[in-house]
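Box S2. Input/output pair 1.
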Amino acid sequence: MIKWLKRMPVRRRLLSILFWSVIAAAFIGPGTLVTASSAGSLHGFSLAWTLIFATVACIVFQEMAARLTLVTKKDLATTVSGFRHKWLIAIIPFSVVLGCIAYEAGNIQGAVAGMSLLLPFSSGVNFMLVGVLAAALLALSAFQRLIQVLGALVAVMGIAFLVVAYQVAPDPSGLIRHIAFPEIPEGSAWLVLGLIGTTVVPYNLFLGSGISRDDSVGMMRFGLIISIVLGGIISLAILVTGTLMNGATGLADLISVTGKVLGSGSEKLVALGLFAAGFTSSITAPFAAGLIVKGFLFHNIKDNGRIVRITSLSVLFIGVLSGLLDFRPEVIILAAQSANGLVLPLVTALLWVLSNRYALMGDQRSTTIMNILAFLLLNVLLILGMRNMLSGASGMLGLEIDAPLLWLSLISLPMTLVLGLYVHRIRAA
């Protein structure tokens, strides 16, 4: 591995990291900012280990999705669309695209919140500026240009939060201790699942598979792992920054508290990071929706790039319009939350199975280590999925539907074991 890495030209390595930084750009959005900063605010460094776990989970399943495309020359959406079970073809694209639409307004609002602290314009003007900039990038056929812009924004976002986290100057030994010895403080169980859920996102799996290019599996792994690890470090920096908030939560609190404690310069840095986080997500979510619609419904059409652009711009338009009208589609958000609670474990389970089929993957099947990690991670994602389904359903019905974490664990473990036995059987076939 080391010899192979030394033979790889430096420029090629940097380009690979830049290319795959789109995944980091996709999962570090306003949701990650709120969740990670809230974790730091409420529990200090106690939940830092969760971000390490979530980063590993993201690497495992994103690698499976990209490897599937590189080996089969078909993206995940196209592969799943060929299944005999037609309900999959209906529920997966509908749920994931609904999620992209529901959360797009929040992505744009995050970008506008950051921009409002940087530019002396009204909220409406900022919404239009973000919408026009995002539409211009999505409308361009030059995908490489889009990747470069997203990579640059991730760098800006990372620098902003790393600088603030460095100024906080935490005790390194305390941070390392909480990472090495995981704990779940009282009342933090759902926040743990929230940190994982904002990092391993259903549409990102289709995004990573859809953008995989004609490259070697080794090169893909290098760029993907480095970029996701850097994204995890940025998330950790956000959590560290959140320790300044002393129990407060929310984007406004994050910006305000850091500004008061560290000075106006840091407030501007956080605002810049917030803009970058919201803007990158406001591009990747519509783009992923376009790839999903193309892969499931229009992969046989010659000019399917046009389908991607039309779908992407439509999702973006709905998000901008919702922001301008100050419309909070709570029912749609709850429905998307519930549907994606089903889709996330379903898609990751499918990935686990597909990546182990010899007829499909040949010698590029998942390794034993990858399968052990997939087993452990999928069990957690099943708990997260069931929790999101219950949360979304209770919100729509106006009821208090909840289940203890232990009950969900007792349900998820047998399901994961059965799937693990099936994966072992198809590997041996």
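Box S3. Input/output pair 2.
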Amino acid sequence: MDHSLPEAALSIIDWGRLKSGDADEGARLLAACDDQGFFYLNLSSEPVFLQDHKSVLRFMDEYFHQGLPEKMKDDRQSDTHGYEPVGTSTGAMKTLPDYYESLKASRDELHGDGMDLPSAIRNRQDLLLRFCDIMNQVVIIILQELERQLGLGDERVSFQDFHCEDAESLTTLSMFRYPQQETLNLGVGHNKHTDIGTLTFLLCEQWGLQVLSKEQAGWRFVAPREGHAVINVGDTLRFLSGNRFRSAVHRVIPTQRLQHEDRYSIAYFLRAANNTQFTDSAGRQVSAKQWHDEKFDVFRETHEEQEKLPILTGGMERLGSIVV
């Protein structure tokens, strides 16, 4: 661990204890969502899942090191499935584009017949389905525990009501590669944002993720921890909780001036049913799908346009004294 980098002080939640219904762990979970909106999840009780993670990383390394013409065959011009090349959106520094490529598959697609999936994903569909099903189980149980802590359920609308398995949603598995780079001219990192959906389950073994910290004010690196995921609250859960939970602003940026090695990360974005309605950061009544589509459109705008509306960062930069 590089102790010269400013680190975010995040809580560590133990998945084994949380899954078993440990009340103290549930209270710690609630506090983490109230406070930073980011926390580590210790997955040492899931050795098979951690082994699958290694297998998915090997798949990603093989896929992303194909030539660009081959990968572009999987370009679906979509925000939820297929390949997306480097430089599609604005990056982490003014005037420069992003510097990552991605391969995505929606949960609905993975559970379908697979015919619309990129062939590389279709060939590893069993692995990726098993991998996603565990991540989905984790985030749903986290939602259930948050409901229990808040006293939701019974006659009150619960978070789970917006995440029925048979409802169409944009829940997505996203695999990212930040390529090694020789010059900044091509782009930098992943622009500041809050996540669109409900909860994000993130796996990454390398430095680069930063969160805009509330306590240690300013940008802080989220240190990678072996055998741990990073879980964060998204805009939808923030809105559905009446703005109680914190959807923290974060970005990806090299720890040095350039990206000196390929950086890989995997994100499972749990998103509410497309027709879920909530009040967004501008006070509008919107659907989960509308918020998703509008936010991705803003990702591709110039930095100047992004600053005009509280969409990319979910309005979080306008709360309190935080400035990004």
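Caption for Box S3: The domain at 11-318 is CATH 2.60.120.330 (Jelly Rolls). DSSP finds ten helices and 14 strands in the chain.
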